[in-house]
Amino acid sequence: MNRIFFRIRYFIVLPIIGITITMALTFAGAMAKTIQLFNPLLTGGWRNDLAIVNLLEVIDVYLIGIVQLIVVLGLFELFIGEIEAPEWLKARSLNDLKKSIVDVLVVFVSIKGIERLVSEKDPMDALVYSGAVALTIISLTLFRLAPTPIATKYTEKTKAE
Helix-strand-coil percent breakdown of the chain, rounded to 5? Predict the structure, then answer.
């Protein structure tokens, strides 16, 4: 029975493949948007607020792809086996994976906030949206810093021994 459950973990390959496909498509879409930006940026369009917003949108798409990459590598490492990756990217628990994702999401949400701040016509709408972004970032940061019950129990058990 133990051996069956040990092998069931390989079912995680299905979501890994699915997320890898969406990651590749996300990066392909980001590359297409990047190519579209070449002309405006090379001809001085970077001075235009709209070009800056378009550039930030491209960065958003890359960040979404990076989140997908982190999830793929983390799931593989957690369920299948070790991979060669920088130490900060190694996932030893779902909590480690969560923290990596939240770190990228904070940057993503920040960029979305800056995009809206630059493109919004009504200052009050920009202010409300910026406040919502700030609250989201604070929430994500608190979520990231909060210990998980499993990690807390494990740490307490290890300290007791």
Answer: 85, 0, 15
